[in-house]
Records
---
Amino acid sequence: MPRVVRCGLIQAHHPLSGEEPVARHKEVAIEQHLKLIDEAAQKGVQILCLQEIFYGPYFPAEQTVKWYDSTEPIPDGPTTKLMQQVAKKHRMVMVVPMYEVENTGVYYNTAAVIDADGSYLGKYRKTHIPHVQAGKNPHTGFWEKHYFRPGNLGYPVFDTAYARVGVYICYDRHFPEGARCLGLNGAEVVLNPSATVAGLSEYLWKLEQPAHAVANGYFLGAINRVGWEAPWNMGEFYGQSYFVDPRGNFLAAGSRDKDEVVVADLDLDMIREVRNIWQFYRDRRPEMYDEIVEP
């Protein structure tokens, strides 16, 4: 019997200005996403991924300590606990990106992975942390080193009820090394929640990640939020979330500017079929690659 899994990606705008209190941002965004999660459940989604730090604006547009108040421990924080209940209710595997606190002053850009029975499986911490200007205003950008310590958990793959799932986060997608590690660790579906704006990365959006899917023989789902976020307005979050198969074919894609659940049926048997043709893992030469891990 074919192993077909229905997967979903949520892309959404953030409705508040960054000048609002942090607690209000979380309250409004979580309520917004609960409605979209219900929509995904109605569409029969079995594996669902939310966008990068889904419960607020993408605050690294500025550098201020205010946003440290949005951190939560994972898995013991309230949002993880809430999403465990939601996942169990819908029998849905969920990837939930949040702003994690490990200790005071030690914060990570993290995604919690929750199984269909509501159990917490583990987390991935964003490995590659950018610090770059975006837009014409020299004061706005992806100032992420102000907020996030580089991830230190490697590239885990999670055995969920429906598939073996790996996570990469936003800027990670520019680095093929981690994408390969996820494949070597057995990922069948890799999910990449992102927040990225037009004029900076859009020309790469539909190039890099299909290439990762082809080079590693797995399915990949890429998310980008939508809209403009005040007061920074550093650029348009251009949506266009999508799924691609191990041949790099686009299976489903979202709009540029609408909140929506992007859904695709992934035939996991294709992984074996494609890998039996393109023997990239057999033909690897790791003994020849020492140079790429030199500092």
---
Amino acid sequence: MVRLRPKFLETVFTIALLIGLTHSTSAQEKIRLSYSALSPSTAFLWIPREKAFFKKHGLDAEIILIESGTLTSQALASGEIGIADNAGAPAIISNASGSGETIIMGLVNSLEYNMVSTKQVKDLADLKGKRIGVSRIGSSSHAAAEIALDHFKLDAKRDHITFVQSGTMTTRVAGLRVGAIDATVVDPAFVPFMLKEGYKDLGYLGKFGIPYQHESLDSSKAYLAKHRDTALKAVRGIIEGIAFIAQERNSSEVKRVLGKYLKFDDPSKIDDAYKSLRGYALNIRKPYPTNEGVNSLINFLAKFNPKVAKLTAQDVVDASLVEELEKNGFIDAVYKEAQGR
């Protein structure tokens, strides 16, 4: 009688589990996904597309840019898209209006912004009387800036801090250049080249441990009710992408994808983007959204929207897809496969 080694049996089990959970078919199911900003973390969608992880799980995935969290929420509510990479704030505001927008994955679960400014601003305390550029009032960037100010015992009204609606991260940086604003929040990957241009980094806000649901994967209750299996396949593909990004030996391929989509031709910019992205990936092996981060945003947004005050994290978050993939062993199996490549 031939005795099989435990390690061999474990390998066979892992392969069988991955095959059994993939459900690859010749007929690809269509799904439309979107992202709301050009940033390194959006590679959580780009990598599954480039490496055919969506296709592996039976999906013909169309990925589009809708350069606004609010417009992204509207597209989800109308059914134009099924799943979106969106910021936490617009998801909560949309849910409060009755859209049914639901956070199904946590992609970036901390306050992943740096506060940058012109040379004239000495430090965070010197923001008194200054103009801070945000996407719009009530947006994720506004929430991040206000929550950070509160952490440092600053109050916009008392300290005469003005929030200027300045649009996307790129246009906010342009606002700094022309002197329309004195400071803004940007993705950490933007900081090195802004320093080269002479701007000042007032600090990385993520190091202070402030609860914040920075970026999430969203769907709607209506879509999940009709297409839960499709959404589950998409989440599988994204988790495979996260596992791929987390492996350092894949760095050259991940950098290629970042350069392609971010249109960076400067290797140092690509390196900075990769460093940020891999850091995010290493933090979300099991990508649950955080109730603490969602509740932090709810408390902030309730100041501007009475409907938001009625929400709790349980109204906005549906982590059942991630939970299912953790319980059935898919996540652990994916990482075993990624580490063995």
---
Amino acid sequence: MPRSRIVFLIVGSVLVIAGLTQSKKLQKFFRPEADVAANSAQPPVAPIQEAKTLKMTEQARKNLGLVSRPAKPQAYWRTIEIPGEIVDRPGHSDRGVTSPAVGVVTEVHAFPGDTVKPGDRLFTLRLFSEYLQNTQAELFKATREIQLITEQHARLEGLVKTGGVPESRLIELDNQLRRQTALIQSFQQDLLTRGLNPDQIKSVTEGTFVSTIDVMAPSALEQPKDTAAIQPIAFHTKEGSGSDLAFEVQELNVELGQQVQAGQLLSTLANHQSLLIEGHAFKREASSLARAAENRWPIQCSFAEDDQADWPPFDQTLEIRHLANSVDSETRTFDFFISLRNQSRTYEKDNQTFVVWRFRPGQRVRLQVPVEELKNVLVLPSAAIVREGPEAYVFQQNGDLFNRLPVHVLHEDRLQTVVANDGSVKAGLYLAQSAAASLNRVLKSQAASGIRADVHVHADGTVHAAH
């Protein structure tokens, strides 16, 4: 056979094979209508449902610190949070100690940081007061004058009985005696106000004048039973009062050897037993604060930098005492005040007693002022709620399973969230109290894996919901 015919046969065979292959490929794209109808008769695939249940092992719950508690409808007070700080109570916390007369500071007995009790010595002054010296001299003269009048009165009493001296002479002596007695009492009270004590005044009447005085820590006053008796108005304390009262020397205003004038401030003492909480509110909150003050609603307070473990429980009921009637021109806020009783403890060092206060002026606080009472609601920690856009969810625990339930949030603050009791969460259901955001992430992760946590497969191949 010729060589050209062989080549022709081979080429023809290749073309035939290529044509058959191309025909099969075209059949894949252009199927008959019957095939299309057969395929369209198959049932449609059901849409994927959103997962609402997740499964958490006991170890996972412990890792999250997850705790569940039953839902319980209750009443809740909606509050507004207002910042504030602790301040001294004017007229109670700080006391100024002044010089009773002109003098020179010869001794300083108490220094800043020291603790003193009523009646303790603070300063010793050497007197330079001409007025004080004159008063002592007049007191001594009046005392001697009374002695002379008394002696003369005794001599004339016998002569009056015999008629040698008229009785009017005795009446005149009695009047002089009363005038001198009044002068002595006025001089005594004057010296008391200048810082002299009864023993020093007695020595003045005997002719020994006082050249130095001690300035003492102030104390509570007592109304004298006998108004005619000598009462040291600055240093006489009630029986038993002041035993627990202590002052801390807050500031020393003079130096050793300095000359001071009468009324000059020597030192400032502080006692932080009675303080005030000063809240800073905006004017739009004035009506809410006024209602809380009028109705005596209790105020909740969170103290910054307060170590509660070192102190007794704080069991005071805080109420608004009064509201300021002016607005600060810079901050545009107005203040309101709450009374606060402080807690303290003492310790000994270098033969001295020192006081440590729990609350200190300048300490920051957060105040929760009640505004409105919400009844029949569910109160949960803020960490028990997770949000996705406008939706809010809680998680109900059922063994190892957690069901996500939608809820309606009525109010929320930094610590708590109030949920409407509208039937979405039935009373008594156990709800997770924290880690709601973590539970929601686990739910989405389990849903993405394609393994539903709320179903299980039996041995016969049937699928059932979780029991």
